[in-house]
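Pilot study result, target chain (158 residues):
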Amino acid sequence: MIENIESLMKHWGEQQARHGHEASLGSQMGGIMDWKGSAPRGTPGTRPLLGGGAGMDYAAAEVDAAIAELDRRDERGQKLASLARLRYCHGVPVRQQMQEIGLAEGADRTYRNWVQALHQQVMVILMARMGAAHGYTVRRGNLPQTCVKVASKSRRAE
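Predicted structure:
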């Protein structure tokens, strides 16, 4: 079991229980009714702008996307996604989790291997999503810095 992924998955399960896939923000009319007029503006200090009802936080949403990607894969991926939902969202006992994914009742070691595989797959998907989202670039060799500099240097030579 990967401890960091375990804590992230537990956080995802808590967020799923609290918010699920629903998110809502107050309407303008609701704000007018709450404040009995227009809401105050320019108040110094921090305020929770997206308070309760704004949905899952970023980390939980990323884990949710990773579980959804697992669910779209082959049969094993679907079983891993099912295990994730049973283990972290619904709090189902281990014996029932093992039955749901088709493991024998006394196969404790096999169950732990499945949890390890779940953590590894989620970690791989999250790392792939992070790399694609941030788009890290690496410069190698003596490449020109920008095309603009190359063009401006060629004009100076004329």
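One observation from the pilot: Residues 1-21+55-135 form one domain. A full batch analysis is planned for the follow-on phase.
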